[in-house]
Write a structure and sequence with these properties.
By secondary structure, the chain is α+β, with helices and mostly antiparallel strands. 44% of the residues lie in helices and 18% in strands. It starts with 9 loop residues before the first helix and ends in a 6-residue tail after the last helix.
């Protein structure tokens, strides 16, 4: 009687290989994440300490990452830095980012928390363009909808962006005749420059009934991966429901949401 040779347990073998592959990917990713702006080059020993892996394992992973172009070796100091393949992949990721789609979940969450209307604005030829809105549950007289333009010098979103735009752009805006929409609208260039300096220091801007009497707003700038202005996030509502103080919960929530959107766009805060 011929005895059959038992078949190997392929399912168990495949599972072990799968687990090993996942572990290798996680280890490689942890190495890439260990590089920071303040430490762009790291040696094998430094990486070993940073990720908690043996130096032999780190070196083996680095060899593979180097072959694929994800790290580069600097023979002058025997250290490694991120490679050109990451730049290519990063550019693809950045190009696929849509500001409105990226901001919308944060805008909805913000509206749920503060109960007021949220707007997303971008810079458009010396003024702002509203590109998305999420209405709050309570009725309010907010006329700005997607597609509306708002003045840079009177809207909180406009000032939030203007404060971080190049000085030439600021000069162009302030050189024009500045319309006075209400008695609260500042039209003096010197006064506006002072306000822009304050916005740069705090990262928050206000519309204190400067376009519509009874309506106030709080805005924060949104930055892209280059550290340049991508837009502004605004919460607007009746003046009695939009507190202006630095300890305002609304202010903190708007700032937190704006920072989260900027991070998702690739911005690294200084």
């Amino acid at each position: 009687m011929t005895r059959k040779t038992p078949k190997p347990n392929t399912s168990s073998t495949d599972l072990d290989r799968h687990r090993s592959s996942i572990q290798s990917v996680r280890r490689a990713v942890s190495l890439l994440k260990a590089f920071e702006p303040n430490r762009p080059e790291l040696g094998v020993s430094e990486l070993s300490r940073a990720v908690g892996l043996h130096k032999t394992t780190v070196y083996r992973l680095l060899v593979t990452l180097k072959e694929e172009g994800f790290v580069q070796h600097n023979p002058a100091n025997d250290r490694y830095r991120l490679g050109p393949s990451l730049i290519r992949v990063g550019r693809i990721a950045l190009d696929s980012v849509d500001l409105s789609k990226q901001a919308m979940p944060h805008m909805r969450a913000l509206v749920d928390e503060v109960g007021e209307t949220a707007m997303l604005e971008i810079w458009d030829d010396r003024r702002t363009l509203v590109v998305a809105t999420v209405d709050g549950p309570r009725f309010t007289h907010i006329i700005a909808r997607a597609g509306y333009h708002l003045p840079a010098h009177g809207s909180s979103g406009g000032k939030a962006m203007l404060a971080f735009l190049p000085s030439e752009e600021v000069d162009k805006v302030l050189a024009r005749e500045l319309k006075k929409y209400t008695e609260n609208t500042f039209t003096d260039p010197g006064r506006l420059r002072e306000e822009l300096a304050q916005i740069r220091a705090t990262g928050v801007s206000y519309d204190r009934q400067e376009i519509d009497i009874g309506v106030c707003a709080i805005s924060v700038p949104i930055f892209d991966h280059r550290g340049e202005i991508a837009g502004a996030l605004t919460v607007a509502g009746p003046m009695q429901r939009i507190p202006q103080g630095e300890d305002s919960a609304v202010r903190q929530l708007v700032k937190k949401a704006g920072e989260a959107i900027s991070r998702e766009l690739g911005y690294l805060a200084k």
